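Researcher: I'd like a structural prediction for the single chain below. Treat it as a standalone chain; there are no partners to consider.
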Amino acid sequence: MSWFWLNVPAMALFFAAWCGIPMFMVLRHPTWGPQRADSAELAPVKPPRAVQIRREVRPSATVAGSTR
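Model: Treating it as a single chain, here is the predicted structure.
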């Protein structure tokens, strides 16, 4: 059972590193990341064009093992 108590400090160290390093990076470099949408460097986005649906096409189902 003494091996368990030896693992507790290691567990606390790894937990602190797992949570602390990303938190430190976020607090240290708050401006890093994707640019905001209102940035002048971004090109304007074109709206998607409408897709015309053909009326004669209907969805069909294929049954596994059918001979058709």
